[in-house]
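Objective 1.3, modelling of assemblies. Example input:
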Amino acid sequence: MTINQSGWKPEMAVKGADAAAPTFTGNKALMLEEPLIFEIGSTETTGVDFAEGDVKHDRLGDLTRKAPIGLPGLSEPETVRHYTRLSRQNYAIDLGLFPLGSCTMKHNPRLNERMARLPGFADVHPLQPVDTVQGALGVINELAHWLITLTGMHGVAMSPKAGAHGELCGILCIKAALEARGEGHRKVVLVPESAHGTNPATAAFAGFTVEDIPATADGRVDTAALKARLGPDVAAVMITNPNTCGLFERDLKDISDAVHAAGAYVYCDGANFNAIVGRVRPGDLGVDAMHINLHKTFSTPHGGGGPGSGPVVLSEALSPFAPLPYTARTADGHVHLIEEERTEEFSNEHFGGKLDSFGRMTAFHGQMGMFTRALTYILSHGADGLKQVAEDAVLNANYVLRSLEDVLDAPFGSAGPCMHEALFSDSNLAEGFSTLDVAKGLIDEGFHPMTVYFPLVVHGAMLVEPTETESKAALDQFIGALRSVAERAKAGDASLKSAPHFAPRARLDETRAARKPVLVWKDAEPQAQAAE
Amino acid sequence: MRYLPLTPADRTEMLRVIGAESIDALFDDVPEAARLSGTIEGLPDHATELSVERHMTALARQNTVAGEVPFFLGAGAYRHHVPASVDHLIQRGEFLTAYTPYQPEIAQGTLQMLFEFQTQVARLLGTDVANASMYDGSTACWEAIGMARRITRRGKAILSSGLHPHYVSVAKTMAKYTGDVLETGTPTLSADTDLDALIAAIDDDTSCVVVQYPDILGRIADLQPLADACHAKKALLIAVVTEPVAMGALKSPGEMDADIVVGEGQSLGVGLQFGGPYVGLFGCKDKYVRQMPGRLCGETVDADGRRGFVLTLSTREQHIRREKATSNICTNSGLCALAFSIHMTLLGEAGLRRLAGLNHAGACHAADRLAQVPGVRLVTPRFFNEFTLDLGQEARPVVRALADRGVLAGVSLGRLYPGEDSLANGLVVAVTETTTPEDVEALATALEEVLA
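Predicted structure (tokens):
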């Protein structure tokens, strides 16, 4: 069966700033258009050779598949070309500075990739007998040790699959701890306005009522308002530190003390840990739970949107409730895997008393492939390197802030230095020009835009996080580009409204995509094919 | 330090531009008491690639590598051959080091790939649509139960006893906090699935029935009667596929009218990786698309009228809806979805069918051979590439003893269901295209010795 092989037409439309004679193919030199696999593949083609021999479906009974599936295949050369061409339509850290605030797009060391692919890690089954996987469990245990040490916490849950999953883990630990105390009636979670959307979504999922806490004029949590709201119905406070305005929450220890005195717990969103790694330990600030995005601070690749990994460090009060499974190393050097059994055996000595796990969050042990990468990263940097990471990340962000505050409004710029990210607003752009126009203008300059319209506490927010892996030359070029685009937006340069002009696509119609969603390829109708 | 490009001269010059006296001045907002005095306890200073590589390699060597021994483990994670080009392509920096495609003009590579992935998954599972992936099969399964609650506005989910016990465990954890009522059961060491009991249990409070296909013991059953029974009570049928290669040989759950089909996509492209990262598959009928969790990629046009792709229907998601979102999920499993999609493109339909056939044929051969071992009984007469043996004695120590003989024999039901005596003798054995006749013979011989 051929899947609409003739259905694809080269895209001929060319207009805008780079208008030139249309090409026959729709390609423009190295800018290559690529059809869908459903337009070029066929169900008879395969790029894999198989062993010879007859195959009988004799144990499937009447469940043998008869209907066609509709999966196109390509030969290996065609496959390599298809995905290589697609890859070239992506921006990536490997191509340039990727200043997404709160996303920590740093260089992904290739040694990490090599280590994750060692057969002893990559080709090991999660349910193998534990003494055949001592090295894999050893990686989990060793990484756990460093995460606990770096954060000054008591324990760590390694299994959460990503940041939001880690948030859920932390909130479930808090809920379990409250219930164990007989205070399950505490139903309110306080979340600052500047929080990531996952914070309120997570708290709501776990059955809590979310209440906003306002920010002060200098971009921090309103400590007085927060303290005033504490009471017997409050279960937890979720605070991001450094926060999403790029500022350190100076009062966090004071807040934590007040929260604890009121019988509640402090959840810290650790998305921005990169700014303080090696310099500040959240455990010293009274935090009870904090997820660590290994794909941010510890450089595991973002991969176009995952996989992430979100271990959660826990205080002594919350550690007994950590999810299954977890590891424990005994004096003989053996690393044990504690699943639905053996929890009695490993209760007292390793977990500060009673062990009362709230349950399992995922089928297996977490993101092993990310653990090997993160451990490789930590060992490569060492104590001096990690401290330098935080310092250079903060230095780079302040350099961007001070180099651009004359041209863009920096709402908290006068309050002192920022941490790992610099925040600007759209307040001095020309009438009719928005943050979106600046972002799209940056694309034409060869940069990925910064985070836009987040945090919500600043109008038309532009949040720039350069990270420590950018050279001064790269920063200077980025600063020059953003300055140029900002000046055009202030001067009312109409060409910005239709930017980007040089990207593989112009602005895409998102309203149309949502109004009548086309989420899968539909083969052309037979009569339509006949007409061609 | 090789990953940090700033020179001391750069730092000095940048501090001058900033107007700060020192790096420490930039950390002025950190209270003195919170500053880490000294260095990180026990952590040495930065290390060369070579020395880190030695340390990690030493750890890796402490593990028994699946590909180096006769290997028969499955139970939710399967060892398949992944073509070399898959790993090469996912390491293209433009895929590996890209972010979530929130700026679609410069992320068409990821977006088109996701659109292709969604279509492949939907066709494979037999659903109308599929999303851009979840963390893994177990979290996808839980999300499906939550989705059924939102659609039916009912809170009772009936989980088949054939559902992977870790998937059940995840659902139980979550249900504690959402208030869903879960009815669960333990499988019997027999050929009989619990389909009839499930049908009998559906009532007017039931949001959904969750059934695994093939199930944890490898059994397969026609889901159509169950789907009909669900729909008669306005409940949804959720099918869970932990071995997507099976879809090359078996009728898809969608063909049997399942409403939501979720799965673990690890078999294609991803590898074993000691349990993660994996890739959750999530498909459903068209009419439920606005209740789906997770990212969705959709087709649209750009300002010049050219076809392009964007993330869409994001009003379901946490970054827009915050506490009213359909799920708190943010990240998907993008790079694993890419690996899945490339592997599927290399296979194509013909290749997938051939691969499934080889898996099934190999499993049939292994089942016949192992059933000849004295004391061993084949529990599951119908299966795809995974079947259950009754060893006539506790399987867990047998697995342990076989590992000592250099054979990774399968997953004992004692490991999956600790404390369930009725299942203790069960061994779940998976066979794929990577299993050779010599591997089967090695297992059979070793099993004869250990059971004797």
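Chain B touches chain A through 211 residues (CB under 8 Å).
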